[in-house]
Specification:
Keywords: Coiled coil, Membrane, Transmembrane, Transmembrane helix. The chain is an alpha+beta fold and 308 residues long. It has two domains: 60 residues; 210 residues, no CATH class. The protein contains eight helices and nine strands. Strands 5-4-3-7-6-1-2-8-9 form a nine-stranded mixed β-sheet. The longest helix is centred in the first third of the chain and has 30 residues. It is elongated, with a radius of gyration of 37 Å. The chain starts with a helix and ends with a strand.
């Protein structure tokens, strides 16, 4: 009898041990909560490692360097630095120009200020004139004198075919655009010394500098085609830099980098139209518009010569 009791007790103990082991196994099983937690933890670790790798790449890459545009040379080798005739010489305005260079009347000034309240669009271009050197001012700066005969001669120079358009909400906005492109305002002539007085930092504190040897100036320059409010802004900005403008020619100097950028834009635009660059181009109009915190030029129209 005792043997049977002992066997039953032993069986009960084994059963209790089995149940205890099953309970322990249940506790050790992976729950749904544990699965979701593990998934999120893995994602966090992966994203953290990815961000760290990107940070290391950014540290090792350094500052991005813009790719410089290759200069576009439109004429064949053999052209010198000096132009033919008086085309690039800075001379005092002639008798026919005095009227255009006179200070505006009060009525004209009021009208210009009224027009400037709204957006102003004006174009920079060279003067359309066949005047001679004895009575008129000089040309607008084609620094390429005639070279050897060939197809390179049969083109219209940038100074003649380019037109730069500015959209400005007022004098401050216009000055910011000039500073952004590093375009300098300048005045020369007027019967005084043969110098070029230039102004920069126009939107902050206009600064004056003087070139006492005008023939050394090789940058492309433009004047206003028609009288407009922006011309009055030019005069005011030059005056703020301490430069006299009464009876003088007012122009804008385009830096070489900007000239090269515009030339590459013009070349790409013409070639996309299936035109031969630069021989087929008669006129290219660039427009300056706001772009984020700065400004950008774009081509709004391009006219072509017949037979090209």
């Amino acid at each position: 009898m005792s043997t049977i009791v002992e066997q039953e007790e032993k069986t009960d103990q084994l059963e209790a041990a089995r149940l205890e082991r099953e309970l322990e196994r249940e506790k050790l099983k992976l729950s749904r909560f544990d699965s979701v937690t593990s998934l999120f933890l893995a994602l966090i670790l992966f994203l953290g490692a990815f961000v760290f790798m990107m940070f290391v790449v950014w540290l090792l890459s350094g500052e991005p360097k813009p790719i410089a545009l290759a200069p576009i040379i439109e004429n064949p080798p053999g052209r010198g630095e000096n132009p033919e005739g008086f085309e690039r010489d800075f001379e005092p305005p002639g008798a026919e120009e005095v009227e255009d260079l006179m200070e505006p009347t009060l009525a004209d000034t009021i009208e210009a200020v009224t027009d400037a309240v709204s957006s102003v669009a004006a174009s920079l271009t060279t003067a359309d004139t066949n005047a001679t050197a004895s009575t008129q001012g000089t040309g607008q700066g084609d620094s390429r004198p005639p070279g050897p005969e060939g197809e390179g001669d049969d083109i219209i120079g940038r100074w003649e075919r380019w037109e730069l358009t500015f959209n400005a909400k007022g004098k401050k906005d216009y000055a910011k655009q000039l500073d952004f492109y590093k375009i300098e305002l300048a005045a020369f002539g007027g019967g005084g010394p043969n110098v070029i007085e230039m102004a920069s930092n126009l939107s902050t504190s206009p600064t004056k500098r003087v070139n006492t040897q005008p023939k050394t100036e090789e940058r492309l320059y433009f004047s206003w085609k028609l009288s407009n409010p922006l011309l009055q802004f030019d005069r005011q900005l030059l005056g703020a830099a301490g430069i006299q403008v009464s009876g003088r020619n007012v122009i804008r100097f385009v830096p070489k980098d900007l000239e090269n950028q515009l030339a590459n834009m013009e070349k790409q635009y013409a070639e996309e139209k299936g035109k031969k660059f630069p021989h087929s181009i008669a006129k290219t109009v660039f427009e300056s518009t706001a772009d984020g915190s700065g400004y950008v030029f774009s081509i709004v129209s391009q006219r072509y010569r017949k037979g090209y």
